[in-house]
Every structure is written in C-alpha cells, then in structure tokens.
C-alpha cells in the first residue's frame, strides 16, 4: 500500500456531528410521542370524570322526578276522598257495605285501583334504585291506611288476580300480606278515639 493510498478517506466514515443531530431528533420525537400519549390519557380520564358526573346528575334528576310524580299521585288519591259526595260513599262502604249501589261500587273500584297503581309505581321505583327502602314497608302502611275495612279487603280478593303479572312479580304476594294481615277497623277506631277524647274534655279552655 502506498503512502497515497493510506491518505484516502475510509469510505464508510460517518460524521460525529451528524450522529449527534440524529440522536437529538430521535430524542425530541420520543419526547413529543410521550407528551401526546400523556395528553391523550388525560383527555380520556377527564372524559370519564365528566361522564360519571353527568350520569350522577341525570340519576338525581330522575329520582327527584319520580318522587314528585309519586307524591302528586298520592295527593290525587287523597283529594278524591275529600270530595263530599265520594267521602259519603267511602263512609257507606265502611258502615253498610251491603247497601252500596252498583254505581258506588264502580266509584270505589276506580279509587282502589288508583291506589294499587301508585303501589306498582312505588315498587318499580325501588327496583330501579330510584327510591330507597323495601317495598314491603310502604305496602304495610298503605294496607293499614286504605284497606282496613271489610269492603276494601273483599274488593282486593276479587281483583287480586288482575295484579299477578308479570310472572315472578312479588307485587301480588306483598300486597296480599299487607292488606289481609293489616289492622282492621282503623277508621272506626280513630273515630271512636276522637269522640272519646272530646267527651272527656267537653269545654276545653285556653286559659
């Protein structure tokens, strides 16, 4: 090999400066990739948080709506009892149920059906998790307040088969227990208790 040949540059020589530039480009590219990935992950997390908050808000609104409708339904039921003519029908069903006319029984049928509609709404709301507490508690209260006389219980026995669907629904069984085993004669007990209380204090003074 001649001296001239030894002075020829190596054909595969790579500049050190070029290596450093390529390394910096790769580092910057990796950094950008990591930042983009981080930003995407943060975006996903923020989206999930907003979705959860929106679902909670929607659930709260639905729960409030159900409770408002439920309360309005009971106000309607109780309002019908305050009508003078219908309150006389209810009183007659308690004191002399055998003397009820067909038209009066039709009125009472619609009245008690409305109560059961309310109870079915109460059960549905609890199954959906929109209202807390077991359905049986509400059923027991309603059984005592609205089905504490012989006519009301006899009416339930006649129509209970209409409330047996869908299969597997515990509504009929729960209402059976609440109505049949509840207090009997509540209205009469309250009436006589008030009369007895008033007779003991005929002239209450405000002294």
Total of DSSP H or I helical runs spanning 4+ residues: 8
Mean pLDDT: 76
Termini separation (Å)? 137 Å
Tally of separate domains: 2
Cα-atom radius of gyration: 39 Å
Structural class: mainly alpha
Task: Give start-end ranges of low-pLDDT stretches.
Answer: none
What features would you describe in this structure?
The structure is a single chain. By secondary structure, the chain is mainly alpha-helical. The chain has 2 domains: 48 residues; 117 residues, no CATH class. It is built from 8 helices and no strands. The longest helix has 67 residues. The radius of gyration is 39 Å and the shape is elongated.
Helix and strand topology:
Blueprint: H1 3-6, H2 16-82, H3 84-95, H4 102-127, H5 135-146, H6 150-159, H7 171-180, H8 186-200
Helix pairs in contact: 2-4, 4-5, 5-7
Question: What keyword list fits this structure?
Answer:
0% strand, 207 residues, elongated, mainly alpha, single chain, 2 domains
Short description:
With 207 residues, this protein is mainly α. It is built from 8 helices and no strands.
